[in-house]
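Input/output pair, single chain:
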Amino acid sequence: MKIIFVGLSGFDYPHTRVRCYGFAKALRQRGFNTTVLSFKDHLAPHLTEEDMYANLRDRDKLGLIYRAVRKLWPDRKHLFYLQKAHFHSAAPFLLSKWAGARYILDYDDYDVPLSNFFARGRYSRLCFGTNDWEEITARIASKAVACVAASHGLEEFLSSYNENVIRVETGVDTEDFHPPRDEKPSEEPLTYFWNGIVWGDEIVRCAKLAMKAFARVHEKHPETRLLVVGGGLQWQRLIEEAKAEYDHVPIVFRGWMPPGAMPPILRESDVGLLPFGVDNRWVRCKSPTKLFEYLASGLPVVSWNLGEAGHVIQDGENGLLVDDLDSMTAAMTRLADDPGLREKLSRNARRSAVEKYSHEVLGDRLAEFIRRFETRP
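Output:
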């Protein structure tokens, strides 16, 4: 049996990179025959990632779905692994109706309010039988032979629609992401780190919380800096607003980095930051890629105690959990004051990544689950 991973984004975006390309590689290493169909990489390489999410017209989406159906048709007797429920999910969904194709739904964000289906309801009804986004997501999940959830919150959500649900966190490649081999020179500044795809207001608020907390820490510890790495639709807006508000604070911005550049960037850093600007279902269901990359890189993590982070971080052992801006500032200051605590958290963070969230461990779990669906019932 072949497993065809179907994703909307390209390799540069974490959703498809980790949960299509990465999981396909992990299963291939365990004897499965896997391949990837990325709408961005294989059907629309001339478009940007932002185009795929924000700039496509309905007829463009229908054209991509048509091409995907034609490409997937010869493999309709095999198993599709669908990452996310957006317009691209119509390809395996329709093949399941027309030809009895089977697919597994992989869901790594609660995307219903942000779903990228169609502007015109008639096209959603044509592809999915309804134009209600929540109902579309429910139908995609219920028609799947199984679902893979990236977090406890998503596991609970998908279990309402499908009895075959397993939780497989986003995880991290611990061979690529690892702590520095050599000791950091003492004269280098203590570096706090935040990175992300700045796609809208919610992510802008997250990044600005990190900046505001850092500005407070820097008043007491002038030997520190904040490194911010990212891209996306609102990236330039974030830079402009930050420079207007924090022009006196050493905040270093670096634009979007290719995936291979991220591990060495993280090894320049000392503390990973994961604030959340809102408390909603999206946040509580999220399995943040950056969290696992921070852990694997041996970074002490200061994270909001919301959603999956509360399951991954044991406060005071492999990171610090906080509830608001004041407690985040206090935790960041505490790490600046206490090199011994940073060393302890760094060591335990790396151990957590290797023992619980490495692709080696998660690959075994996913492989065992998928073997249940190698043959048709």
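Residues 154 and 285 are 5 Å apart (CA to CA). Residues 190-356 form a domain with the Rossmann fold fold (CATH 3.40.50.2000).
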